[in-house]
Amino acid sequence: MMQITNDDKAKRVYIGDDYYRDSVTIVNRGIEMFYQKVLTILTCLDLSNNSFHGRIPEEIQMLRSLRVMNLSNNGFSGEIPFAFENLKDLESLDLSRNKLSGKIPAQLTSLTFLAGLNLSYNQLEGSIPQSNQFITFTNDSYRGNPKLCGLPLSRKCNEVGLPMPPPPGEDEDSWLYALSTWKIALIGYASGLVVGLCIGYTALNELGNKWVDKFKKCGKRNRRRCR
What we know:
Elements: H1 6-11, E1 24-28, E2 31-35, E3 44-46, E4 53-54, E5 68-70, E6 75-78, E7 92-94, E8 99-102, E9 116-118, E10 123-127, E11 147-149, H2 170-220, H3 223-226
Parallel strand pairs: 3-5, 4-6, 5-7, 6-8, 7-9, 8-10, 10-11
Antiparallel strand pairs: 1-2
């Protein structure tokens, strides 16, 4: 897997030709394929359906002749290694059903031979790269990642997840602003009430004085005529 020379590729020898016949069943691009005799140019790493956990080791970039890699149905966590960009011959990559998080590295767009990609049912987030082979992959490659956004998904990047929390201090500022507004309204209401009472008192006092003056004048005259 680490290196195959041009001479090795030209021979197209089969493993086990001289002594025994090797056969293997490989899941390639989502299809289970049975190889009765294994070519040396078929470089495949299938560690699916195990209990591996932790980060995917960066040393995997040393397998530069790798064409098929299947690490699905494990417990791998952390981010997808940027080192995958060194696997230039990679044609199929299956990292589904793990616990991978973070964004899909933009470096993976340099894998121009990549024809099959499955990143479904992880914890990936952010926008999906939009160049080279990535524009050919369908929704099935990304399903089960609720925080992923962008084409081919119908979910736009500004619609992902819950509303963003306000910046630190924004809640406090909003509370202080509401309190200040409430105080201003209360002061205005109280001031208006005081002014209204003063005006009302003055008007009633003037009206009362007029009735008193009129009553006094009528007392001096004939009160019956004043009625």
